[in-house]
Structures are given as C-alpha cells and as structure tokens.
Write a structure and sequence with these properties.
The protein is an alpha/beta fold. It has three domains: 198 residues, Rossmann fold (3-Layer(aba) Sandwich); 87 residues, NAD(P)-binding Rossmann-like Domain (Rossmann fold); 122 residues, Rossmann fold (3-Layer(aba) Sandwich), CATH 3.40.50.720. Helix content is 43%, strand content 14%. It contains 17 helices and 14 strands. α9 crosses α12. The longest helix is centred in the middle third of the chain and has 31 residues. It starts with a strand and ends with a strand.
Length: 422
C-alpha cells in the first residue's frame, strides 16, 4: 500500500520503517527539518535497537517530507502518530491531534478518491468521533464514512523492543464500525498471525488506556508490597515469583524497585484519572498508583541515610534513561531522584550510555562521568537507576550501592548492598 504517516517521532518513525519492511511505500510527514534530513539519509532520528538496519534496508520505500498535501494526495492511508502530552492538571492535550486533523482535511479537499485515516496516537475515548473526524470533515468539505473514514489502531510498542513488538504483537486492535475501513486495515495486516480484535472506535481508544493503566497499577502494587517485604526482611521478588505462578495473576510486570517512567504510563494513567473525574468519578486506584510511583524514589534517600550523611557526599547515579536500550528520559525516575538528592545537598555525578546529553539539559549543574567505571571509582555511594547490561560487570568494591533495578551482581562486590524492595 501507499501510506503516509503524520509525525516522525518515536511511534511514527518505528511504524513507518516497519511498514516499509512489509513492502509498503511510506511517506513520513514531519515539520522538523533535522528529522526529515535524518530519515532521508537513512539514519533514524532516535535510538531503537534494529531500527537503523531496517531503515538502511528499506530506505528506497521510506521518504520524509514537510509537504502534507502531496503526501495525502499520493497515498491511500494516513496514520496519525503525533504526541498527546499531558497538561499541568494531567489531562490530555489534543493540540497536535487537532492540528494534524485540520491539515489532513485541507489536503483531502483537493482529493477525489476515498481516504482512510488511522489514529495510532493515544487519545481518550471519543476523540476520533468528536474531534478528529469533524475537523477533517470541516476542512475537507467532505463526508465522514463516504469520502473518508477514521479508525483507531492503537500501538503497543515498548521502547527498547519496539521493532520486535511491531512484528510480534499479542493482538491487533481495529476500532471502527465502517466495513470499508476494516477491509483496508485487514489487508495491511494480512501477514500477521496474531488475533485481530474488532470493536468500536471508543472501545479501541479505551483499550490502550486500560492496558497501560493496568500495567502501571501492577508496578505500583509491586512497589508497595516490595517496601513492606523489605521492612519484614523478605525478598519481594521471591514473593512475586510464587504469586505469579497463579494463572490468574501471572509473573509479568512485578517490577518492584524505583517505579515506572517513560512517555506512556505516567501520562496515560493521569489522563484516564482526569477523564474519570470529569465524569464525576473518583479514580481512587489510579490516583494511588500515581502517588506510590511519585514517592518511590524517596526510599533511596532513606537507604542512603542509613550509612552516610548525604550532604556534601558525591552520589553516583548509574543510568538516566527511564529504561535500557533507549535515550528517552521522559518521566524518568532519575529526574525525581537527582532533584531530591540535590535538595539534600549531595554532589551528583551521573552516567548513562545514551541519555547524558538529554539529562544535561535539565540539570546542567551536575557532573557526568566518562564511563561507568569512572563513576563508581569517584563516588562515595552509587545508586543504580537504569538496568543497563554493562552495570552488571562493574567492580563495586568498597562502595555503598543502592540498587533500584535488581542488578544482583553488584551485591557480589559492594561493601554495602541495599535493594530498594529486596
């Protein structure tokens, strides 16, 4: 198929390159000239394992441009992959969605053929029906369901494993009651053997929020039980190993430690919480999950203070990205932790294989080590914040180590080892 993608960020670039690997011709529409030039040079504008190789292989099928009119005119399907950030109150900001819908509408005004618009961006239930489709209709002067259709096809890509996740999905969600829309999308995904779940637009939009929110709640539950287990002298991971053997519970996402971050979980839980409140519902479980997550880094402060006065001490932060195999620091727990340590008078030295340049933009006053080994050598105490593989092979001899990500090999050499929840 001939496909256009609005947004050359994380979801848009990964989706576009992977669709090209399936044999489709893809045009990525982006306003950032650096991203356009990067993609057209067969260099991804972000780090994701396997993405560079796929773009190099399929570069002849991938084009990036800022010309949305030509992109819409020459393609049959358009994916909306723009960001939906949080407002200060946690509610979803649809400004990029609205701009994308209006731009698509203007481009469709000059097009005679039917066009399918697929929303991959995470949007609250009702957005496709009440915001996106009406805006496209208004600006195109065309009729939804006749001249164009809007459907929801949420993404479930994990940073650091996004390419794998694209080609090995647990399920594909198609939100639409328009047979023409479903037929086109089923043709696009014909090479996949996973279940295809068809539902209404609102249901598809809600599935994405429920999926992320449930996993976030499970992590916060793990952290609350983990804190209690540690106070009782119990390794919470052994507890969850046993509990997870129950088929009703399962072993995944019992990731007790510093908590969750990234571009999805904090934002999506907050948006669902605010949506519930707008309907007069108190979303108590979601509220609790966010509160637990926001406060989890304080356990590191408590553990450090058992052994040293923090003021004036050099505290090494191993890992800044919210997870390994990415340079993304959005909502990373390193941000909360470093802020708290600085307020306690600590001197911070940090290291991350990918994310130090991004982190310096937030904390220009901190020092960054040239290597993880240098950081360990020059610190009074070390906090492991991201589970990068290379941190398993370090010599922590003579050091106080507070481990927030279960790098158990650190226990073999550290003079003092404290796990956050074990």
């Amino acid at each position: 198929m001939k496909i256009s993608i609005i947004g050359g960020g994380y979801v848009g670039t990964v989706t576009g390159v992977c669709l090209a690997e399936l044999g489709n011709d893809v045009t990525i529409v982006e306003i950032d000239r650096k991203k356009i030039d990067s993609i057209n040079s067969k260099i991804p504008p972000l780090f994701e394992p396997g993405l560079k190789e796929l773009l190099e292989k399929n570069g002849h099928r991938v084009d990036a441009t800022d010309d949305i009119n030509t992109a819409i005119e020459t393609t049959d399907v358009t994916f909306i992959c723009v960001g939906t950030p949080s407002r200060e109150d946690g509610s979803i900001d649809l400004a990029y969605i609205e701009k994308a819908a209006a731009s698509i509408g203007k481009a469709l005004e000059k097009k005679a053929q039917y066009h399918l618009v697929v929303v991959k961006s995470t949007v609250i239930p009702g957005t496709c029906d009440s915001v996106i489709a009406p805006l496209i209709a208004e600006y195109s002067k065309k009729q939804a369901g006749v001249d164009f259709s809007v459907c929801s096809n949420p993404e479930f890509l994990r940073e650091g494993r996004a390419v794998y996740d694209f080609f090995h999905p647990d399920r594909i969600i198609l939100g639409s009651e328009d047979p023409q829309c479903i037929q086109v999308l089923q043709g696009l995904y014909t090479q996949f053997s996973c279940p295809v779940f068809k539902c209404s637009l609102k249901t598809a939009e809600m599935i994405k929020y429920v999926s992320n929110s449930f996993l976030a709640v499970k992590i916060s539950f793990a952290n609350e039980i983990g804190n209690l287990s540690k106070a009782l002298g119990i390794d919470s991971y052994k507890v969850f190993e046993g509990a997870g053997m129950d088929s009703r519970i399962g072993p995944l996402f019992f990731n007790a430690g510093l908590g969750f971050g990234g571009s999805c979980f904090p934002k999506d839980v907050a948006a669902l919480q605010r949506l519930g409140e707008s309907k007069g519902l108190k979303m108590m479980l979601l509220d609790a999950a966010l509160k637990i997550n926001r406060g989890q880094h304080k356990t590191v402060i408590t553990l450090l203070e058992r052994y040293i006065p923090i003021k004036g001490k050099k505290i090494g932060i191993l890992g800044l990205a919210f997870k390994p195999d990415t340079d993304d620091i959005r909502e990373a727990k390193s941000i909360d932790l470093v802020s708290s340590l600085l307020s306690h008078g600590a001197k911070i030295v940090a290291y991350d294989p990918m994310a130090m340049d991004q982190f310096r933009k937030i904390f220009p006053e901190i020092n960054c080590a040239s290597s993880s080994r240098d950081l360990v050598r020059d610190s009074d105490a070390v906090v492991i914040v991201t589970e990068w593989k290379e941190f398993e092979d370090l010599d922590y001899s003579g050091k106080i180590v507070v481990d927030g990500r279960r790098i158990l090999k650190a226990r073999d050499t550290a003079s003092v080892y404290e796990g956050v929840c074990w």
